[in-house]
Amino acid sequence: MRFLSLAYLVLGAALFAAILSEFDFAEAVDLVWAAGLVGLLLILALHVVAATIDVLHALIVMQPLPITLGWVGRFFRVRLVTEAMNLVVPAGGFGGEPLKASLLKQHYKVSFHHSSIGIVLARITGLLAQLLFVAVALPIMEVFAPLPESYEMLAWAGVGVLALMAVGFVALFRGKLASRLGGVLKRSRWGAKLGRGLHAFAPIEDAVNDFLTKRRKFVMLAIALGGLRTVLEVAEIYLASQLLGYPIGWTEAMVAEGLIQLACTVGFFIPANIGTQDAVMTVVIGTFTGVPAAGLGAALLRRLRELIMIGAGFAIGGHYSWARQRTEG
Fold first, then answer.
1. How far apart are CA 107 and CA 326, in angstroms?
2. What is the pLDDT of residues 96-135, one digit of tens each?
3. Residue 200's pLDDT band (cuts 50, 70, 90)
4. Kind and range of the H or E element at 4?
5. CA angle 169, 175, 180 (to 5 degrees)
6. Quick one: what percent of the chain has pLDDT higher than 90?
7. Using CA atoms, how far apart are residues 309 and 210, in angstroms rounded to an integer?
8. What are the φ and ψ backbone dihedral angles of 240, each rounded to 5 degrees?
9. How many C-beta atoms lie closer than 10 Å to residue 307's C-beta?
10. Residue 1 pLDDT class (50, 70, 90 cuts)
11. pLDDT greater than 60 at residue 189
């Protein structure tokens, strides 16, 4: 596992190095410098709003927790820690989920049962929101913001992969495939232990299916919040292009974000999406503006924002560890 993690990191780093060698890094840095501290703070502020929407999305499906300012603050702090983890380990959005369940249990007395159900529902509704957004963004690309044919073919292939992931994840729980496989394995000598573990997913599968079928208004609201968060990420790209001095339109920003999401989802195994996210932003925004350095500058601005959020996440994570040690001591 460590070898794979290192291999994925090296792969992403090599791609990032190739981007830096191919494009004018110094010019991109100059553009970011010109955006200034105020520009970076505006990017951060927009991201905080998007993160708050993401917290509301998580709370909507984390029944029976109330949606209050107190719980929004708690979930926001937990999100900072888990997102920092997601950005530095392979398996992206999945890497921090066990940590999220653990923090909610240790510090806020949320049972593993309830947190697991909420995490699964947030993942399902988030994937569906992402798929809907990309399904809208790519036809817009074809009509209003065409890219070279090879890029468009890769984008549509990515949509197919994303659709398979979304359908597969939904089918896994709707069909209770994990517990059914566990029921088969636990009757065998070699797979009994694994089978018992998988069969224990049955109550979570039942609760997820119950929520999806009986609380459809909440499901639709969660998908809508996931879509709203993506709209704010589009706004971040739009704002970045304005700050860098090479503005693109809202349509181009929407297409760029759609392609970025596709690349990050398909390349989820690369820590921090290093290389993949940067390549898409550099090429797509560079194509729209005619200035590759503007695309690389937008990628660097996003990386700066991510580094600041990672630092905040690790700081809060350190506080959680200190609080736990003090309690146990």
1. 12
2. 788 888 899 998 999 988 899 999 999 899 889 988 888 8
3. confident
4. helix 2-22
5. 110
6. 32
7. 35
8. -60, -40
9. 12
10. very low
11. yes
223 phi-psi bin (left φ>0, alpha ψ -120 to 50, beta other) = alpha
Does residue 138 register a pLDDT over 70? yes
What's the CA gap between 211 and 217, in Å, rounded? 10
Give 201's DSSP letter.
T
CA 111 → CA 60, 108, 119, distances in Å? 17, 9, 12
Euclidean distance between CA atoms 228 and 129, whole angstroms: 9
Residue 52 phi, psi (nearest 5): -65, -40
- Tens of pLDDT along 60-104? 998 778 889 999 999 999 999 998 887 776 555 555 788 888 899
Q: Map 19-83 to HEC letters.
A: HHHHCCHHHHHHHHHHHHHHHHHHHHHHHHHHHHHHHHHHHHHCCCCCCCHHHHHHHHHHHHHHH
Q: Any idea of the CA torsion for 310, 314, 320, 323, to the nearest 10 degrees? A: -150
Least confident stretch, 87-91, 214-218, 301-305: 87-91
Domain layout of the chain by residue ranges = 2-165+223-328
Rounded Cα distance, 295 and 318, in Å: 35
Closest CA to 49 of 228, 220, 224, 258: 228
Residue with tokens 């939904």: 170
Contact in structure between 287 and 270 (CB atoms under 8 Å): no
Residue 323 has pLDDT above 70, yes or no: yes
Written as six digits, the tokens of 138 are 């790519």
Distance CA 299, CA 278 (A): 5
